[in-house]
Write a structure and sequence with these properties.
By secondary structure, this protein is α/β, with parallel strands linked by helices. The protein has twelve helices and 18 strands. Helix 4 links the parallel strand 3 and strand 4. Homodimer.
Length: about 400
């Protein structure tokens, strides 16, 4: 999308507003599939939690993507978007057996990550094939909150508990058709990923009925000019060779699966806000905008850096600003950032707003969640209306005072 297109969206739909570029999503999907073109059977499960708008799911499904879901609600969203049940993997954490059984009823692939549920499920439903999520005890990821494969993680069954898994499988007679791992997000060192993959390959040898091996995802995307990112081409070359070698030794062709979320949609997203006030203090110039961490929590939660550009004055002289929101507590998007000179009323664009922005948005301070717009076929399409006061009070039940 061009700057003029973003300004048109801000004018047409108001601010704040999320905008997603379908062309960029498609380019990332093609880049990943091309990187693993030497694998005979490849399946990309888009991680719905990154951006769960049904229109985005439809776009990805149309490209050939399957879906990775972590809740029964995400399963239903994927089905609502037209995804076939067999193309949905359900990988919850810490949910009840009842929710898992609801997912079974919807016909999706089940992925279990703890021994207790594995034994309960195998005892009640031994004929339903399941995938097992293994924790390889490998530390990977750009932030402790998104590193999920280490020894202290709540996710997955410890690789050291594999004998217990085997005992449950043997005792229940259940069929294991897949094995899975996810080490974390923002992975830079592909050698760490390949090391974890070797642990998964070794675990896979213990199961005779496998149909797929799921390597999760966590590929890092660039957040600023010159930023480093996961070299998916090099990873594709090395992991494909090793995967094909494993399949040959295993005795049949398996499917190599991935679950990218941020990789597919992060760079496709822009978040547009309007500057309400330019406030000079004794030490700082604040650009105060019509949004806050209720709409984009990642800088406050993860310390992430989103590039911010002044699309109303792109060729203006750079000055230093701290960009802050309108939430009634510390609410900082950027400290002392160089941005083209800002005036009140200007539109600022946050980059990398496609993943974990709207999906983590809230109504904190009773603010409305913004609209979502998809740039598709060179045209802006409204794919979620901006909330209104009616949405804020819809499910509230007023107390009748006596």
């Amino acid at each position: 999308m061009k700057t003029k297109d973003l300004l048109t969206v801000a004018t047409q739909f108001g601010s704040p507003v999320y905008v997603y570029d379908a062309n960029r999503i498609e380019a990332q999907y093609k880049r990943l599939t091309k990187a693993f073109k030497k694998v005979k059977h490849l399946k990309i499960h888009y991680a719905v939690k990154a951006l769960s708008n049904i229109s985005v799911l439809k776009i990805l499904n149309n490209m050939g993507s399957a879906m990775d879901t972590v809740s029964i609600q995400e399963v239903r969203l994927a089905l609502e978007a037209g995804v076939q049940p067999q193309d949905i993997i359900y990988t919850p954490n810490g949910v009840s057996l009842e929710e898992i059984e609801r997912a079974v009823g919807l016909g999706v692939q089940i992925n279990i990550d703890n021994l207790s549920i594995l034994e309960q499920f195998g005892t009640k439903h031994p004929t339903i094939p399941v995938c097992i999520r293994i924790n390889p005890h490998v530390m990977a990821g750009g932030n402790t909150n998104i590193s999920v494969g280490h020894i202290d993680s709540k996710f997955g069954i410890s690789i050291h508990q594999l004998p217990l898994v085997k005992r449950i499988v043997d005792n229940t007679g259940m069929k294991i058709n897949g094995i899975h791992m996810h080490t974390g997000s923002d992975i830079l060192d592909i050698d760490v990923f390949l090391y974890a993959s070797e642990i998964l390959f070794e675990a896979a040898n213990h199961f005779v009925d496998l149909e797929f091996i799921d390597f999760g995802s966590g590929f890092k995307v660039p957040y600023k000019e010159g930023d480093v990112e996961t070299n998916v081409e090099e990873l594709g070359e090395k992991l494909s060779r090793r995967f094909n070698e494993f399949c040959k030794n295993y005795g049949r062709e398996l499917t190599l699966a991935f679950e990218p979320g941020k990789f597919l949609v992060s760079e496709a997203g822009k978040f547009l806000v309007k500057v309400n006030v330019v406030k000079q203090t004794t030490s700082t110039v604040f650009a105060q905008v019509d949004s806050g961490f209720n709409h984009l929590i990642r800088p406050m939660l993860y310390g992430s850096q989103h590039e911010i550009s002044n699309i109303s004055n792109p060729s203006g002289k750079d000055r230093f600003y701290s960009v802050v929101g309108y939430i009634c507590e510390t609410d900082t998007f950027a400290n002392n950032r160089r941005i083209a000179e800002i005036s009140e009323g200007d539109i600022l664009a946050f980059s990398n707003a496609g993943a974990y922005c709207f999906s983590m948005a809230s109504n904190y301070n009773s603010r409305y969640r913004p609209a979502e717009v998809l740039w598709y076929n060179e045209k802006a399409h409204l794919i979620r209306k901006r909330e209104t006061f009616d949405d804020i009070i819809r499910n509230q039940v007023p107390l009748e005072l006596s």
